[in-house]
């Protein structure tokens, strides 16, 4: 969550108390079709192909038979086959970098960093980018919004995603310094209609086509795929709560992190349960996961079956039978952890059949037991206390004296979904220290960051520190290793902090490079774990940890190695990759110095931006 979000929400709170490896793919086999038959079969790979295809392969590879050899001249020796390229290694070998401050992005030796896409850059075909002079409301609707956050890379049918792809990017909050004069003190009660439209255009999502030319990634201007979804756009509403929300909602905002689906859509997550930029809109329309199709085939839809709360991101697990589970966290102090299992299975053979897959299913909230076991508690009306007259215990972890329970009526499933926070508490879910990003590895292990909760008073096994200022990471395994599990086993993977700090609750247990406030987290297709931080940028914090940064965490040794450090005042967030892992896309949110102008050679204000990180030799990032 951007600290700017809290600023924008002050008034609202007051009102409402895997990659292909060369040589192993069929394309590589077909490329060798001119190699003589005996040469192909002599090697181990040819033998394997012969075993797979039997004698038919011999017939296909050439005429004649070995029985004709005595009657025909012996052929000249076949030329030696060229040596196979060495296997690609993804083992983490980069040299970690030290903690630092300064108005630059720092990457390891042998790496490059380029700015790809900054707030105010053109998106829609024909749009004029922000170049120092404020645009009008219509102009801002066609350029990049602010506070770049979660994002995901998508293949374009018929194109190589390692060189040409779609990038969907969240915009959490406005970069007010590139808007109209006075936008930093935006007040919806006094803003003009145009000012309100401008600020609302600065949130939402950008979808852009990008391409790599001569080794450098750029935005493909005037692509038909390029599109903005903003706080002024009208969205459809799906799922059981549509009866209370209505068929459409104007605007999405506070688009924090995000996720993807197996069928290639983008899940942008609203980290607010009202429209604090335009309070005239009913608050029930916000706090949802919004499904967007980067290809533009399906309409953008708010999926109410996934519950209404301060969504951070999503991550999915997919079983062999194509049953999916969507994991989510409520980024509030405190909040709960959720899982949604659709009623129907994902259909990999018919993309259109998955269009409304997220409108029906079962929503669960997690209970973390002290013995390291856990349960997924079903949030279905009529079960686990979700009835009329239910008693919501409130956020009891934040004070020594628990608040008085509040009566909440769950008469329908729509009531449960609109009041998901209360439903989770009533059902008995564990109140966690700001659940933020969640990620699922190729081995189906689930990791989740809990950024911090300084005011926590009452602790438990999953939130073991009072005044948890630096946060922690949990890891769990679903019982049976399946998305359908209703029980799991969990552990505290690490406690953030630094041993040089004075008190026990601040020291943590990190091995290697220390950090505060883990936020973004992702396991890449090769199973490597990356964490990004959103710590305070005050001198008292940066003097220990340096600026916010990105780290590799070894899942066995739990050693932390710093990979990237951001510029002054920023949060590091958003992480996606090219399929071959030679490119990492990372977001730099709300820098406060002159970056990225100081590397782009212009005099524009500091802006949030998406950067491209690559190795100079073109090998996989991190290796």
Describe the structure.
- Residues 1-20, 65-85 are annotated as: Disordered.
- It holds the Pfam family PhoX.
- The chain is α+β, with helices and mostly antiparallel strands and 623 residues long.
- The protein has 13 helices and 31 strands.
Q: Helix coverage percent of residues?
A: 10-25%
Strand order of the largest sheet: 13-14-15-16-17-23-22-21-20
Give the beta-strand count: 31
Q: How far apart are the termini? A: 30 Å
Specify the biggest β-sheet.
9 strands, antiparallel
Radius of gyration: 26 Å
Beta strand %: 25-35%
Oligomeric form of this entry? single chain
What is the global morphology? globular
Provide a count of the helices.
13
Poorly predicted runs are 18-73
Mean pLDDT over the residues: 90
Derived from helix and strand composition plus strand pairing, the structural class reads alpha+beta
Protein name: PhoX family phosphatase
Region (Disordered): 1-20, 65-85
InterPro entries: PhoX, TAT_signal
Biased composition (Basic and acidic residues): 1-13
